[in-house]
What we know:
Layout: E1 2-8, E2 17-22, E3 25-32, E4 35-40, E5 54-56, E6 61-63, E7 70-72, E8 89-90, E9 92-95, E10 98-103
Antiparallel strand pairs: 1-10, 2-3, 3-4, 4-8, 5-6, 6-7, 9-10
Bound molecules: FE2/S2 (inorganic) cluster.
Amino acid sequence: xxxxxxxxxxxxxxxxxxxxxxxxxxxxxxxxxxxxxxxxxxxxxxxxxxxxxxxxxxxxxxxxxxxxxxxxxxxxxxxxxxxxxxxxxxxxxxxxxxxxxxxx
Length: 104
Ligand code: FES
């Protein structure tokens, strides 16, 4: 496992989500209040970037822009169809105003 620096905390404003390529892994990094969440950026239904969807801060979900499956930012599980498989989730660490994720 390696700790990868993703960005500065200022690069993802509160209430927004951005996509980052970390080697072979592409993550959607979401910022809600004091928390950052990192999940796989590819929908498990079709090859669509989840980071282009809507961030649902109240339910801590990211909605796929194509068919509307809502993925939990905490577990990666889709809470609505048509997607049925979870996306990967990554542990996020904040250090010295930078965001890091743990990649296997
Ligand atoms: S492509 Fe994401 S729900 Fe269909």
